[in-house]
Write a structure and sequence with these properties.
About 5% of the residues lie in helices and about 45% in strands. It is mainly beta. Strands 1, 2, 3, 4 and 5 form a five-stranded antiparallel β-sheet that branches. The chain has a four-stranded antiparallel β-sheet with strand order 6-7-8-9. A four-stranded antiparallel β-sheet has the order 10-11-12-13, with no helix packed on it.
Length: about 350
């Protein structure tokens, strides 16, 4: 498995792009048999009542919205191309996603937007040359950021909400820049930069691309920044101990604290109040969902099934978690209370 693919399998939303083209769930090790249905990482609506996710059934890929309690899904887009990297607009009235070609090795793609109530499907970026992925709305919804991959190199771009005013923020020279994450005030963007050696670091820059600053400099692979709701800290993943674990540091850089010591851990997601982190970690060869305090203390295992449970996502009120589970033989969206009780299938 190449470095970029392994890293994608530990990222919450990026894992969807690879998971739709591989035989298992979105975790670091896919232990479930090849399913006929593959749902990808769920994303909560801003109001916290519904979930959006990509799904593949046979050769058909689609974008779905479903109640957090389950039920019939509203299909926003359907086709033979992979629909991945789903993200809600801050107001909740639009869904953005990438539509890509090429299976596990993506060869092309663009960002699309649809109304969250259905209809209004339109292409927002051209994807060329190369392909566009991981679209992340700015907090005010006016200046989304995304990754554009060209000839194996990646750069961070922003555009306006209608797809005009395209701007490249990082140079697509000899780096693979991706996973742009906005600060809550919209003034900064954290991102991952992987060098030609295959090792990555966490960087941060102003929203216009100026003042690019490297935050991590370990002789290992650091990636997958997740900012606290107040923007003061970020969690990230690193294999500096030989296995991928979750670390935490100030969003301005400085001392880095290892939070997990599992077989392999990833997909950190801060609770809305910033006091806890949900994540996935390997237990006996399968991935399970855990929650720990922001300091790494008191990790609690919430799922205990065979096959992978991955990609946790908090509801806006911090009372619920959505996640992917392969416990029934297919990668499906599930939900539960934040303490692990009330686990139920959503999709």
């Amino acid at each position: 498995m190449d470095t970029q693919t392994q890293k994608r399998l530990l990222l919450p939303i990026l894992g969807a792009a690879v998971g739709l083209g591989l035989a298992g769930a979105g975790g670091a090790i896919a232990s479930a048999p090849a399913p006929m249905v593959l749902d990808a990482a769920p994303v909560w609506s801003p109001a916290g009542q519904t979930l959006a996710f990509a799904s593949r059934v046979g050769s058909t890929s689609q974008i779905n919205i479903v109640s957090a309690t389950g039920g019939k899904a509203l299909v926003l887009a359907r086709g033979s191309l992979q629909n991945v990297d789903v993200n809600w607009s801050p107001t909740g009235n639009q869904i953005a996603f990438s539509r890509v070609t090429g299976g596990a090795v993506i060869s092309g793609g663009s960002v699309y937007v649809a109304n969250s109530t259905g209809g209004g499907l339109r292409r927002l970026t051209t994807g060329g040359p190369g392909y566009d992925e991981v679209f992340n709305w700015s907090p005010d919804g006016k200046t989304p950021a995304f990754d554009r991959i060209t000839n194996g190199l990646g750069a961070i771009y922003t555009t306006s909400a209608d797809g005009t005013d395209l701007r490249r923020l990082t140079p697509a020279a000899s780096y693979y820049d991706y996973w742009a994450v906005w600060s809550p005030d919209g003034k900064k963007i954290a991102f991952d930069r992987t060098s030609a050696s295959g090792f990555g670091d966490i960087w941060v820059m102003n929203a216009d691309g100026t003042d690019q600053k490297r935050l991590t400099e370990s002789p290992a692979d650091d990636f997958g920044a997740a900012l606290t709701p107040d923007g003061s800290k970020l969690a990230f993943m690193s294999n500096r101990t030989g296995k991928y674990q979750i670390y935490e540091m100030s969003s301005g850089g400085g001392r880095q604290l290892q939070l997990t010591d599992a077989g392999e851990a990833g997909a950190p997601r801060w609770s809305p109040d910033g006091t806890e982190i949900a994540y996935q970690a390997q237990v006996g060869g399968d991935n399970q969902i855990f929650v720990m305090s922001a300091s790494g203390a008191g990790p609690r295992q919430l799922t205990h099934t065979s096959y992978d449970n991955t990609d946790p996502a908090w509801s806006a009120d911090g009372k619920k978690l959505a996640f992917l589970s392969a416990r029934d033989g297919s990668s499906e969206v599930w939900g539960m209370n934040a303490d692990g009780t009330g686990q139920h299938r959503v999709s």
